[in-house]
Design a protein that fits this description.
With 338 residues, the protein is α+β, with helices and mostly antiparallel strands. The chain contains ten helices and 15 strands.
């Protein structure tokens, strides 16, 4: 549905400034009968428009890559801290120096339970009839002109990989953004990236992975681009690693994209097992056990895969959120200013 910005005097200045709450309030005040899901949809459209405006202006005085003198202790090869100790320096120390950082208990049990239910609702709406608009659970992200964003094959491919975009699920997106604010994540990610962060339709993913799923090694930089200023936040929404799939991680900081598509790789951007063995050197492959609410931060260089093994019996629920800078955003993705 199109949103005519000309009908809302003053909204251009708010969008230029990235003041999303004020822009949403301005529109909502003119739509007193709008449901909460309609307002959530409008918020996503406005975040997309604010992103476009931010991306059109070059960022100044950005310090990249981030650095710190902080050290974090690695447990079994991976830095592992309580979420209460998470700050910019520990985040930089974990990701930039050691490739990854685990922050335990970032989301509460109640938040995780709500998101598991929301993922089930989102999956059900898409699977019942992907062409039917569901205001809460299945409304494809559109720009303010009403044009649906994303490549034509994207949603079906994503669903085939046990995921759907949070940006296509307005009620889920609204809840997640509020949870991010409560956890202080927008400011934390901005302090790491050096710019106000943006999410994307394509890499903001609700996941429900079955126990018998397949997996393959990869670095996201193989298709995102190694030069991007990016940070991923992967949050376990259910216990995983014992009865449900978790993550297998090469516990080593890499500063390059390793060879892809060689014999033994599944996709052309995947990494064959023999390449993994060569690249990891004397560092282990670590398969952490996660409790619901535990988070993992990493960037596009981390060599990892979904952790699979015989005997898993439960679905694994997770939220994956790749943050980019507007000035370094993948050109083929659709952005949402955070």
């Amino acid at each position: 549905m199109a949103l005519s910005l000309a009908d809302y005097p003053g909204i251009d200045a708010l969008l230029d400034a990235g003041d999303i709450p004020a822009a949403v309030a301005l529109v909502a005040d003119r739509k007193p009968g709008a449901s909460r899901d309609e307002v959530s949809r409008i918020e996503l459209q406005l975040r997309n428009e604010a992103f476009r405006r931010a991306a059109a202006h070059s960022a100044e005085d950005v310090v990249w890559p981030p650095s710190t003198d902080e050290q974090v202790t690695a447990t079994d090869g991976i830095p592992d801290i309580p979420a209460s100790e998470l700050d910019r320096d520990r985040l930089v120390a974990g990701v930039r120096n050691q490739g990854v950082l685990i922050a335990r208990g970032l989301f509460s049990d109640d938040t995780c339970a709500t998101l598991r239910s929301m993922i089930d609702e989102t999956m059900a709406a898409f699977e019942q009839d992907r062409q039917r608009i569901d205001p809460a659970w299945n409304t494809p992200l559109a720009d303010v002109s009403g044009e649906v964003q994303g490549a034509t094959h994207f949603r079906a491919f994503n669903h085939g990989a046990a995921g759907l975009s949070a940006a296509d699920s307005p009620r889920s997106a609204s809840f997640i953004l509020a949870a991010f604010q409560e956890a202080g994540l927008p400011d934390l990610v901005e302090s790491y990236l050096g710019e106000r962060p943006a999410l994307s339709l394509e890499k903001w993913t609700l996941r429900r992975v079955p126990p018998d799923t397949g997996s393959s090694w990869h670095q996201d930089g193989a298709f995102l681009g190694a030069e991007k200023h990016a940070l991923n936040l992967w949050i376990a929404l259910s216990d995983c690693g014992e009865r449900a799939s978790g993550l297998d991680i090469v516990a080593r900081r890499l500063d390059h994209i390793v060879p892809t598509g060689t014999p033994g790789a599944f996709f052309d951007w995947d990494v064959a097992p023999d390449v993994v063995e060569r690249e990891r050197g004397d560092q282990p492959v670590v398969s952490p056990v996660f409790r619901a609410g535990d988070a993992v931060f990493f960037d596009q260089y981390l060599l990892h895969k979904t952790g699979t093994k015989p005997g898993f019996t439960e679905n694994r629920y997770a939220l994956e959120s790749w943050f980019f800078t507007p000035s370094s955003f993948p050109s083929h993705y659709s952005g949402l200013l955070v």
